[in-house]
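Researcher: Here's a chain I'd like modeled. Treat it as a single chain, no partners, no ligands.
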Amino acid sequence: MEMFVVAIDHALQLVMAPNDCAQVSVAKHQLKSLLEEQIPARNVRFIAEESDPAQTTIAQALAAAAKPSIPWKNIIMSEEERVAAGIRDALKSRPGHPDYETMTYWIESRIPEDVVREGFFIDETLQGAKGARSILVLLGDMHVEVVAERLRERGYRAETNHDLVPVRRWE
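Model: Modeled as a single isolated chain. Structure tokens:
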């Protein structure tokens, strides 16, 4: 099984909206172009995505429009699942600080509870893949390398891509 794990900015993974500013539209178009190129090139047969379940994402729309359609699954942990795993409070109080150099971004700190979420992402992806040999996984940048490494430890081939998240917003 081959995994292509793509770092995404959650604000930019949603389908185009009429009120998107020019910068957001460009970033969304870059994501769409990357996916339109990579999905057929890699013969992707399953897409797993960490996203807001109430919103339609670019990857979700592409999966539905593909002929034949590509199974897509939202792998985000619900509030109830976070409570059951005992990590909700820690995630809500995640430490962080502004990017002191530019004061443009908020830098989040990784916490031990991220490992629990990443295990959930992996389990949900593998359960949903149902034997697909080529899988696309879209995750927040903070999780990409950890998830890819854990997949490799399980014997899967995992390649990562951070092209769409040029500024690291975590430590």
